[in-house]
Amino acid sequence: MLVLCEDREFLVTKNNQRIKVGDTGCVSADSVVGYKTVTLWASMEGYNIWTGSETLKISSAVDDIWNAMTTEQKQLVRAEILGSTIYIWVGTITDPENSNRTIPNIILTYDISKNAWNRLSTGISVTDFHKYRTSAGEALFAGASTGGVYEMFSGGSQAGVDFSSSFETHWNYGSGPGVVD
After folding, report:
1. Dihedral, CA atoms, 13, 15, 18, 20, nearest 10 degrees?
2. b or e along 55-69 (b: 16 or more beta carbons within 10 Å of the residue's beta carbon)?
3. 24 by DSSP, 3-state: which?
4. In the list 80, 145, 167, 171, which could disulfide-bond 125, CB 3.0-4.6 Å?
5. How confident is the model over 59-111, as pLDDT tens digits?
6. What's the confidence (pLDDT) of residue 176?
7. What is the C-alpha to C-alpha distance for residues 80 and 14, in angstroms, rounded to an integer?
8. Distance (Å, whole) CA 134 – CA 13
9. DSSP-based three-state secondary structure for 63
10. Average per-residue pLDDT in the chain?
11. Half-sphere exposure of 22 toward its Cβ, with a 13 Å CA cutoff?
């Protein structure tokens, strides 16, 4: 069994032996998700994966966002997995490229099967994520700071009010290093 503490990780064996396996720690219990045979979670340094033999930081592609987060924001990170994609609510941050601008309601997505990070911005301030089975299959729902519950990615409004959102993908270098296609 993997045990995540604030500043390290342990394996606990059937004989109740504790074996230290890492020093990253877990900053938010609500950030822990499991996918097949791996466990993923948020630490102060980024988002991590336990492969069964080692802890690896997988969020280097979004370090600019992670580093813009305060300690309090990292402690409030929420995550849920739907299919092979993890949705990680970050909150509002100061734009890493323009300190005079804030980016509201950031959600980072990580597709495990493609090893790809993306950034979303929603019209609500998420306080919780939950996955439920619906008549159409599994769906992701978000609890808002207003008390409302919304199905994610199901339309262009929330509580009857249109919202604008954004989506940002990683750079594609198809023609060679340094050439953005």
Report:
1. -40
2. beebbebbeebbebb
3. coil
4. 145
5. 999 999 899 899 998 998 888 888 899 988 888 888 888 888 888 778 888 99
6. 56
7. 29
8. 37
9. helix
10. 80
11. 22
* Cβ-proximal residues to 163 (8 Å cutoff; 6+ apart), any chain: 122, 123, 124, 156, 157
Phi, psi of 96 (to 5 degrees): -60, -20
Give the pLDDT confidence of 141-169 residue by residue, as tens digits.
777 777 777 666 655 554 455 444 444 55
Q: For residue 40, what pLDDT band results from cuts at 50, 70 and 90?
A: very high
Residue 93 near residue 103 (C-beta atoms within 8 A) = yes
**Single-letter residue type at 177:** P
Each residue of 69-78: pLDDT tens digit?
999 989 988 8
SS3 147: coil
Closest listed residue to residue 68, CA positions, set 13, 115, 32, 108: 108
Q: How many CB atoms lie within 10 A of CB 10?
A: 15
DSSP 8-state symbol, 146: T
Distance CA 86, CA 47 (A): 11
